[in-house]
Design goal:
single chain, mainly alpha, Arc Repressor Mutant, subunit A, 11 helices, rod-shaped, ScpA
Length: about 325
């Protein structure tokens, strides 16, 4: 891609009427052209003017004259733009005048590199110019908008948290200490591992005392003070023992409904509850066999030792 092709991609198309349009900025007046300096570059890039016929010194002299007429109010951006465009035109004119062919000299390579840098700057110049136009358009649209200056509506103001402006350094320090304080280490309880032992006889006595006092109650009320499952099971087993002794009667009107318990026993006689659920330890049927095995092992071990001693004495 040549420098002319790059310039053609960067420069936007220009209307023919723009040549004669009046402009307060710097304009160029040469043999076949009269108009803005940017338009001159556009026409040359599109081959509407021959760059070899353009006297750059004339354009430069006119620009210097234009700057002097501005006095102290001359625009630095406009001067920079002129230098960029003038350098591009100079490079285009040098490329047209020099013969084309393979470049072998290092100086020629350096010139080509400098030309590429100039076109790169031209691309940057066009890009910044377009972006600045976009920013200007957005600023113009933003100036037509006005913020809402009314207060917040009541239903939304109540959602805002209360601002505590009365807090001092001490209160903030206390909050920071609370937030940064190490959290207590969580402990895993082992109480559920050891099953609570429940005495059926004791639970039966509790039921007897209550029923002799209230005469009739429900099973739900009877276990209201039980805080563990094992305690509920123990109280239910005691209730079954009392039923077997004909001390209580059950009544359930609807299936899965409340179980009503009514006292039918004697208020003065002592009710004996069997202790089949309160056995401390079942009969150990394995221990005697283990003891016999241990005794046999001990006998065999002693016999082996005696035989070993007798063998050692015979060898000596």
């Amino acid at each position: 891609m040549t420098g002319t092709d790059i310039a053609e991609e960067v420069v936007a198309p220009v209307d023919s009427e723009a040549v004669v349009a009046p402009s307060e900025k710097f304009s160029v007046r040469v043999g076949d052209f009269d108009g803005p300096f940017d338009l001159l570059l556009s026409l040359i890039s599109k081959h509407k003017l021959e760059v070899t016929e353009l006297a750059l010194h004339t354009v430069t002299d006119e620009f210097i004259k234009y700057i002097r007429e501005q006095g102290k109010t001359w625009d630095l951006d406009e001067a920079s733009s002129f230098l960029v465009v003038a350098a591009t035109l100079l490079d285009l004119k040098a490329a047209r005048l020099l013969p084309s062919g393979e470049v072998e000299d290092e100086e020629d390579l350096a010139l080509l590199e400098a030309r590429d840098l100039l076109f790169a700057r031209l691309l940057q110049y066009r890009a910044y110019k377009e972006v600045s136009a976009i920013f200007a358009d957005r600023m113009a649209h933003a100036n037509k908008r006005f913020p809402r200056t009314v207060g917040l509506e009541a239903q939304f103001s109540a959602l805002l948290p209360e601002v505590l402006l009365g807090l001092g350094p001490d209160q903030f320090a206390a909050l920071a200490a609370k937030a940064l304080a190490p959290k207590p280490v969580e402990e895993v309880g082992i109480g559920h591992i050891h099953v609570q032992k429940v005495n059926v006889r004791e639970q039966a006595q509790i039921i007897i005392d209550r029923l002799r006092r209230v005469r009739t109650t429900t099973f739900r009320a009877l276990i209201a003070d039980c805080d563990t499952t094992m305690l509920i099971v123990g109280r239910f087993l005691a209730l079954l023992e009392l039923y077997r002794e004909a001390a209580v009667a059950f009544e359930q009107i609807t299936p899965l409904g409340d179980l009503t318990i009514r006292w039918t026993g004697n208020d003065s006689d002592e009710i004996r509850v069997t202790d089949e659920f309160d056995e401390e330890r079942p009969i150990d049927l394995v221990a005697p066999h283990l003891q016999t095995v241990e005794e046999e092992i001990g006998v065999v071990t002693a016999t082996d030792l005696n035989q070993g001693e007798m063998k050692e004495q015979g060898d000596e």
